[in-house]
Amino acid sequence: MDRRSGVCLSLYRRLASAYPHEFRMLYGADMDRLGEDAIPAVGRQYGVWGVIRLLADIAVRLPAAYLLEIRKDVVYAVRMLVKSPGFTTAAVLSLGVGIGMCCAFLSEIQSIVKPPPGIRDPEALVTIRSGVSYPHLERYRDQHQVVAAATALLGPVPLAVAFTADRSARAERFSGHLVSPEYFSTLGVTAASGRLFSPETEKPGMAPVVVVSDRFWRMQLGADPHAVGRALRLNGRMATIVGIGPKGFLGIWPANPADLFVPVTCGASIAPELSGDPLNRPDREIFRVVLRLARA
Amino acid sequence: MMDDTNPDRFLPLHNNWFHILLTLVGNEQHGYGIMQEVLERTNGTVRIWPATLYGALQRMIADGLIEETDERPAPELDDARRRYYRLTRLGRRVLDLECERLRNMLRMAQKKRRQEAY
Fold first, then answer.
1. Which chain A residue lies closest to B55 (C-alpha atoms)?
2. Considering its fold, how many domains does chain A have in total?
3. Å between B77 CA and nearest CA of chain A
4. Which domain holds residue A16?
5. In chain A, which residues have their Cβ closer than 8 Å to the Cβ of B53?
6. Residue B87 — pLDDT band, cuts 50, 70, 90?
7. Final residue of a domain: which of A36, A65, A83?
8. To which H or E segment does residue A286 belong?
9. By Cβ atoms counted within 10 A, which residue in A49, A226, B73, B84 is the most buried?
10. β-strand A209-212 against A172-179: which pairing, if any?
11. Are A55 and A182 in a shared domain?
């Protein structure tokens, strides 16, 4: 056997050895033996293109051989399952429950562990477990060596939303967060449309405003391109949509998603949770604080 | 339910299967022998490549058209790695029916040509 036939035979054996185990058990040795006879003969008769054609035939039929094996296995498995309906029912139920539980568990874990979408450098954010009063927020903010920015929020809070100015219009309930004006800048969130809150624009006594999530904009406002500037009735009071959040952003805690973000400066007329002037009372430790740590 | 032993279900027979069955009429043969005999009988017009051949053999054994035989040639002519195949009764029946079918088709074609000649 010449060198070229030797190389081709080696290639042939490699390809043949890739066939499914069961096929190899039955025909492997015979197929190898056939290659020893066929490759020199084909080379003599058809030249190099004949040998390439022979090798191509093995390579092309390889996936089909595996599919055939899989088909046989599937048919066998189905037959066995049909023969034992009790076992099949138990297996399907346990698999279904198991997969469902795993999906739910992983989904929950992801919502807790995975950083919410739309937030810049989420690893630099920390939160304080216990409730904090709004006046104390200033103390955190003043720690410039440690804290780059700080925000407070209250929520989730239920907000009754009507889409028309008509007072008799039916309202739907949505979850919202009452946030300090620095909320979006602390999280590093940018608006998909319109503007977000800032200490310069959100001051007590100003007309109520709201930022809606991308989800709310798509599902409740029909992705209206002119949504910014529209008014919603929130808990009975008109509030203007000033911005739309980035896609996927539902607040800092995905486990408690929010579709509406209302500045705490809007007062108790929109959010009864803000009654009793909690913004100026150090004893009302009802806010959750999120801090962005300073670099280095 | 489909009858596995009904020869009609294999008709019309795949070209490669026809040649393999025809090769095994009256004698056992190994893979390379089948490949060579088909090539010679068809004057080189039909070549069943190795993977195609073994794929077909596998299916034909599963369908009961051929079977492996333990009868082997004399030791000096044999190679232990080779496997020999032979026709089963069902395979023979299928081949006969296919030949009959082809004969009928040829007869029809010839009749038509004769009519055209008049």
1. A65
2. 2
3. 14
4. 3-83
5. 34
6. very high
7. A83
8. none
9. B84
10. unpaired
11. no
* Span A235-285, pLDDT tens digits: 888 999 999 999 989 988 877 889 999 999 888 888 888 888 888 888 888
Residue A77 within any structural domain of the chain: yes
- Structure tokens, A26: 């039955």
Domain assignment present for A92:
no
Rounded to a whole number of angstroms, the distance from the CA of B37 to the nearest CA of chain A is 13
The H or E element spanning position A47 is helix A29-83
CB–CB contact A35 B50 (8 Å): yes
Q: Is a pLDDT exceeding 70 seen at residue B1? A: no
Residue A290 one-letter amino acid: V
Which pair of structure tokens corresponds to residue A219?
A: 């599902």
Given a contact cutoff of 8 angstroms between Cβ atoms, the answer to whether B48 and B20 are in contact is yes
pLDDT value at position A184? 92
Query: CA of A107, closest CA in chain B: separation in Å?
Result: 46
Q: Which residues of B touch A41 (CB under 8 A)?
A: 36
Q: Tell if the CB–CB gap between A32 and B81 is shorter than 8 Å.
A: yes
Residue A100 lies inside a defined structural domain of this protein: no
The reply to whether residue B52 touches residue A57, judged by beta carbons under 8 angstroms, is: yes
A175-188 tens-digit pLDDT: 999 999 999 999 99
The architecture CATH gives domain B13-117: Orthogonal Bundle (1.10)
Q: Using 50 as the pLDDT threshold, list the residues of chain A that sit under it.
A: none
ipTM value > 0.95: no
User: Taking a C-beta distance cutoff of 8 angstroms, is the pair B32, A40 a contact?
Assistant: no
Q: Is A116 within the bounds of a domain?
A: no
Instruction: List, as ranges, residues 56-85 from B with C-beta within 8 Å of A.
Output: 57-58, 79, 81-83
